[in-house]
Amino acid sequence: MKFTDGYWLMRPGVTARYAAEVAELRADEHRLTLFAPVKRTVRRADTLNSPLLTVDCWSPAEGVIGVRVTHHAGALRPGPEFELPGADPQVSVGKVVRDGSVVELSSGELGLRVDTEGPWQLEFTAGGRVLTSIGARGTGFVTDAEGRHFMLGQLSLGVGELVYGLGERFTAFTRNGQSVDIWQADGGTNSEQAYKNIPFHLTNHGYGVFVNHPGRVGYEVGSETVSQVQFSVEDQQLEFFVVHGPDPKQILARYTALTGRPALPPAWALGLWLSTSFTTDYDEATVNRFLSGMAEREIPLSVFHFDCFWMRGYQWSDFSWDADTFPDPVGMLARLKQQGLRVCVWINPYIAQKSVLFEEGMREGYLVRRADGSVWQWDTWQAGMALVDFTNPAAARWFTDKLRVLLDQGVDCFKTDFGERIPTDVVWHDGSDPERMHNYYTQLYNRTVFDLLTEERGEGEAVLFARSATTGGQQFPVHWGGDCESTFSAMAESLRGGLSLGLSGFGFWSHDIGGFEGTPTEALFKRWVQFGLLSSHSRLHGSRSYRVPWDYGDEAVAVTRDFTRLKHRLAPYLQRAAQQAHACGTPVMRAMVLEFPDDPAAATLDRQYLLGDDLLVAPVFSEDGTVQYYVPQGTWTNVLTGDQVTGPRWVRETHGFATLPLLARPDSVIPFAADDSRPVSDWADGVTLRVHAFADGAERTVSVPDPEGTGQAAGFQVRCQGDVLTIGTDSQLAWNVQLGGPTGPLHRAPAGTRELTLPWPDGGTAG
């Protein structure tokens, strides 16, 4: 939210008060408190009739410093609050040191430095330099013409400093110059609104900032004062954490340690998901036609998804199968299971008035109410729909008891749609502040469903397909990009949003292959299939048209079959990337700046990404197959063609539908599973290690996960000395080594082989 009129003036009715100096310092060994008047204090009379800000500083974890600015401490705080598993409010691991008038709070390499005798200035330092600072107008509060009270903070931006994150946003990839409201909205993928709003940003100068406020946070990212990132909340208190890297992966590791790491989804979810689509006509015969069509065309399928109309119209949600369309749901689900499929069904947290659950929910107090005691209702989406009040534990149990019936029938997971349009003119069961609950509702909704799946299916088997999220929502994967159009532009904006979400702490992300609104052209469908099957999770889904490949031509069938089988072969590599997301918070799909923070050319790239550690993917966003992408330093190998390109440089190519730029990193070793018919197999049995452009002296360790996806089935150590490549392993199974690309020489190691030594071709080429 903007408060100024240019640099010199305030907007009409706006009054601002900023910390001017440190009047008093209180400090112990681990934390400090600054008392900051909003004007310079020259004589005793200056202490009268003027606000005093309390600024508490501490460190909840190494490399993280928290700052809490309070105006009036007596304000009510009804909640909700973000749960921060990595921050005990009673603990500070920081160390306070004083040197004359200068006091410093340090935590690892990160420091907060204050000169108590100078004008107001907080400097965050690391590695002997200032990362960012808070200056004369950087700490304070503002009142407007309506009498609203806002706390604000401003952090400086350095020359060339770029800002990323703030959730899944579809606008320009770098946030510089943007005004961003952290406020959940169902706005599609082609607007400034977002389904997943996260008050966390990071920059290319070695730090990130998390604003610990679940309600609306207004950001001005170099858009009000061009050299500042400003964030403001309508409150009497503002709390934020500065998170040091220095590299972006370490920033994400520390941020997700603070707010929660992603759970590890089941490995079977890596396979292809097929949906009924939304408003299309479908019944069990349609489902069987889809499945037999996929089988006849040898396209492996892992999950079948029933979208909204598995329930009767006007009755979402009643969690009961439409008996006219699906007369034998239990038998149908059993028949699907016999084909080796998992089943997902669509749900939302709304109860339509026609639903048999409405009267029960209203009677028992399970639905959100207005101040007069009436149930909140409207007709947008579902006629007379109400909202489940997840702040009521009994309501949450009631909701999950309905879902438990579906799990008993054979359903495996849920698409937790919606959760954004949450009213603020309501009263919550636990007394939560409606404004703060607007964003936070999705956390209660998704956690309730995810916890049920964990309870019923076991840890490591729970997976959602969720649309909305807030801070901490990364703990309940997977999330998908929401309602996009069937255009190349929407395909590109979806990728922008996914990369932004990854830089906001989310490890797993998907999207509607082919686009949701409209019907894709044959070319678009085939290009989106490539992109979708080189994403962490892959789902064919649309709105008014089906997404079965044969509706888009014979070549679309071949592309879908080939890239599904490619993903299955890459499953051990992808599962290792999933383990990294779970353990460290590094997303599976990585913006180039995350992997190459020191390469200036990577800073703004949003039409390509790293899939895991070692695969560069540049989706094709054109009808004619032309694509332009950037290759960082070294020799990169296309894993589909064996062609090599040496960077750093820009490359322009034209690709048919069988290929795209899918490049293996220099000095990389990528495990390919032997079985391409399914996502989960004994990956270590017959695994092929593809070795790409190994330089003299290069060494890599390769982990092949076990079939459960949680541990390691085999480990390999690969090193190059001169023109000799040596591979050692602890595996007792047979394995293979392929040098260079897919046509390179293949060497087989029988079961029990513990070491293999091979001549290394010049440059690691396929020849």
TrEMBL record:
EC supergroup of this enzyme: hydrolase
Enzyme Commission numbers on file: 3.2.1.177
Domain Glycoside hydrolase family 31 TIM barrel stretches: 262-574
Single GO term (MF): alpha-D-xyloside xylohydrolase
UniProt key word Transmembrane: no
Annotated ranges, domain Glycosyl hydrolase family 31 C-terminal: 585-670
Keywords (A to Z) from UniProt: Glycosidase, Hydrolase
Span list, region Disordered: 745-767
Repeat found in the keyword field: no
InterPro entries, per database record: Alpha-glycosidase_related, Gal_mutarotase_sf_dom, GH, Glyco_hydro_31_C, Glyco_hydro_31_N_dom, Glyco_hydro_31_TIM, Glyco_hydro_b
Residues in Glycoside hydrolase family 31 N-terminal domain copies: 59-217
TM segment ranges: none
Family statement: Belongs to the glycosyl hydrolase 31 family.
Protein name: Alpha-xylosidase
Organism this protein belongs to: Streptacidiphilus jeojiensis
Lineage: Bacteria, Bacillati, Actinomycetota, Actinomycetes, Kitasatosporales
Gene: yicI
